[in-house]
Amino acid sequence: MTYSKISVDIEDRIATITLTDPERRNAMSLPMREECMSALRGLETNDDADCIILTGDGPKAFSAGADINELKERTVTSELSSQANLRRELPRFLETMRLPTLACINGHCLGAGLEIALACTLRIAANTARLGLPEINLGVIPGSGGTQRLARVIGLGRAMQMVTLGEPISAQEAFTMGLVNAVHEDTDLMEAGREICWKWQAKGPVSLMAARDAVLASPDIDISAGIEIERKLFALCLASGERDEGVSAFLEKRKPDLRKI
To answer: Hey, which of 7, 93, 195, 242 would disulfide with 204, CB 3.0 to 4.6 Å?
Structure first.
């Protein structure tokens, strides 16, 4: 499929979705969101990739946020429409789809851009990146799950600071508070992302998805319910056959092939 706002490349079963509107700092317009959802659904359905990298085209931005022209046209009625639901559905799909996702954050990652990154399984950043939720400065609040996911990732106090002050932070600050998992030189960012994907490719797809889903469930439920979810996901791993290969490989002193099952 041909896209105008993103590009999709697959190499060694690693899919890279690049936001490609650099003149507008990869603003998350409705067409870009629609193309991202289409690409993700295709990757979810097809057996072409084991994991997905998201990044931005150009050195200035992963995504500088929502399309300001779209924002100024929003009304109470439009905000409650089905079309507006895409802004919530896209991050949620990223968060729960079959394949693990990695945000490689280059340049500015603000507003809707950060909300997309927050939905990814992991996030790494270039050392020149700036991250934030500046919507309060425009008289609104994050509208694609940012207030909810940010607090779950970095804690209530730091999330409150970022959301109510609307001030971007550096990549190093983001790393210190756990918002990103690593910081790299700009020139090393994509290679570092591929190294994470190679590690994911060595894991079983069922156990990897189960591990992610168990962790994602933990902030929303009490520990008893969480342990019950963990128990059922553990049983799913047993049913997948990945445990059999993993234990056999350990006993035979070889590397497991958890994707041959």
So the answer is: 242
